[in-house]
Amino acid sequence: MSTPHYHHLQQYFSDLITSQQLVSGSKLPSEREIGEQFKFTRVTIRQALKNLEAEGLIYRQNRRGWFVSPAAVIYHPASHLSFNLYVTEQGFSPSTEKLAQQIEPANERIAQLMNIPVGNPVLYLHRRRYIDQRPVLIEKMYINQNLLPGIEEEDLTESLSQILKRKYQQEYRDMDLSFKSTSLPAHAANDLGIAAGQPGLQIERINYTSAKQVLEVDYEFWRHDAVTINIAIRD
C-alpha cells in the first residue's frame, strides 16, 4: 500500500521544523502556495496541516495563516507562582489584556464554593493572556469582593497575586485544581482567534486564603500546544 500524499507533506514540514530550518514563529507558505509547489489537492494539504497541528508543531491564527509553534511553557501547579512570574522565568514575555470586568450576582455554583448567598455580588473578570504576543490563554474568573473590598478599582491586567500582597497583605495558600483535555468552546476559541473545536486544556482553579476562605474561582482555557503540566511528587 502506498503512503498517502498528506503523510509525505506532513513529514516534509516536520523535518523542516525539527531541523530548525523553520523556527518558532515562522509563517508557513499559504495553502495555495503549498498546492502550487507540490501539486497536491487542498484536501491533502489541509490533512497534513491538521496532523502537524495535532502534534503541536504548528498553529493557525484566523485570517493570518499557519505558524510554527513556540516551545510550550511549563506550568507547575503546586508552585503558587503567578502566570507572569513562571512565564518570565522560562525566558518568555507575558502580557495580559482585560476583555471584560463587571460586578454581577453569584450563581448557585459560585455562591456554594464561596459560601455566600446566591445573588451576592462578585467581581467577574475576563482576560486574555499572551506569551511573546501570542494569545494562549483565556481566563474567566469570579473574585470574592467580601474578602477583597475595592479590588474592582485596581488595574486588573496586573498579576492578581501581586495585588493581593500589595493591597491586602494576603497570599494564595491552598488551591484546588481540576484539569480536562477538551475541545475549546466557541467563546474561548473566538477569543484566541482560532476555529471552534480545536483541542485545548481546561483548568478550574479555586484559590483559598490561609483561613480556608475562597478568594477566587478561575476557569482557564489554554491552547493545547502552549502549555505542559509538570507535577513533582516527593516522599
Automatic annotation (TrEMBL):
Residues annotated as domain HTH gntR-type: 3-71
Superkingdom classification of source: Bacteria
SMART domains (UniProt xref): HTH_GNTR, UTRA
Coiled coil: none
GO BP of this protein: negative regulation of DNA-templated transcription
A Pfam family that the UniProt record links to this protein: UTRA
UniProt keyword annotation of Nuclease present: no
GO molecular function: DNA binding; DNA-binding transcription factor activity
Keywords annotated in UniProt: DNA-binding, Transcription, Transcription regulation
InterPro entries found in the cross-reference section: Bact_HTH_transcr_reg (IPR050679), Chorismate_lyase_/UTRA_dom_sf (IPR028978), Tscrpt_reg_HTH_GntR (IPR000524), UTRA (IPR011663), WH-like_DNA-bd_sf (IPR036388), WH_DNA-bd_sf (IPR036390)
This protein's record includes keyword Nucleotidyltransferase: no
Protein name as annotated: Transcriptional regulator, GntR family with UTRA sensor domain
Species, as recorded: Marinomonas posidonica (strain CECT 7376 / NCIMB 14433 / IVIA-Po-181)
